[in-house]
Amino acid sequence: MVLLMLVDRRPGVEQESDAWYVSASLSDRSLFTVLYDRHAPALYRYARGRVGVDVVDDVAF
Question: What biological-process terms (Gene Ontology) are attached (predicted)?
Fold first, then answer.
Protein backbone atom coordinates (compact mmCIF):
# COMPACT_ATOMS: atom_id res chain seq x y z
CA MET A 1 0.00 0.00 0.00
CA VAL A 2 1.36 3.40 -0.98
CA LEU A 3 0.48 6.29 1.29
CA LEU A 4 0.67 9.75 -0.22
CA MET A 5 1.20 12.49 2.33
CA LEU A 6 1.04 16.12 1.34
CA VAL A 7 2.86 18.70 3.41
CA ASP A 8 0.88 21.88 3.97
CA ARG A 9 3.33 24.76 3.51
CA ARG A 10 0.92 27.65 4.12
CA PRO A 11 2.17 30.29 6.55
CA GLY A 12 0.87 29.69 10.06
CA VAL A 13 0.38 25.95 9.59
CA GLU A 14 2.60 24.04 12.01
CA GLN A 15 4.79 21.28 10.61
CA GLU A 16 6.77 18.62 12.38
CA SER A 17 10.55 18.89 12.14
CA ASP A 18 12.70 16.67 9.95
CA ALA A 19 14.11 15.09 13.10
CA TRP A 20 10.61 14.16 14.22
CA TYR A 21 9.89 12.45 10.89
CA VAL A 22 13.19 10.57 10.94
CA SER A 23 12.46 9.30 14.43
CA ALA A 24 8.83 8.44 13.66
CA SER A 25 9.77 6.71 10.40
CA LEU A 26 11.75 4.13 12.36
CA SER A 27 8.44 2.63 13.48
CA ASP A 28 6.29 3.72 10.50
CA ARG A 29 8.26 3.68 7.26
CA SER A 30 5.55 5.52 5.33
CA LEU A 31 6.37 8.71 7.27
CA PHE A 32 9.71 8.95 5.47
CA THR A 33 7.67 9.97 2.41
CA VAL A 34 7.12 13.37 4.00
CA LEU A 35 10.88 13.97 4.16
CA TYR A 36 11.31 12.82 0.59
CA ASP A 37 8.52 15.11 -0.63
CA ARG A 38 9.90 18.00 1.39
CA HIS A 39 13.49 17.79 0.13
CA ALA A 40 13.40 16.06 -3.28
CA PRO A 41 13.03 19.27 -5.33
CA ALA A 42 16.11 20.85 -3.72
CA LEU A 43 18.16 17.67 -4.12
CA TYR A 44 17.11 17.43 -7.76
CA ARG A 45 18.16 21.04 -8.42
CA TYR A 46 21.51 20.44 -6.73
CA ALA A 47 22.16 17.27 -8.73
CA ARG A 48 21.15 19.00 -11.98
CA GLY A 49 23.66 21.75 -11.26
CA ARG A 50 26.44 19.24 -10.56
CA VAL A 51 25.92 16.67 -13.35
CA GLY A 52 23.81 18.51 -15.94
CA VAL A 53 20.38 18.17 -17.43
CA ASP A 54 21.24 15.15 -19.59
CA VAL A 55 21.91 12.72 -16.73
CA VAL A 56 20.21 14.20 -13.68
CA ASP A 57 17.31 11.74 -13.78
CA ASP A 58 19.78 8.85 -13.64
CA VAL A 59 21.51 10.34 -10.62
CA ALA A 60 18.74 11.97 -8.58
CA PHE A 61 15.97 9.38 -8.84
Answer: DNA-templated transcription initiation
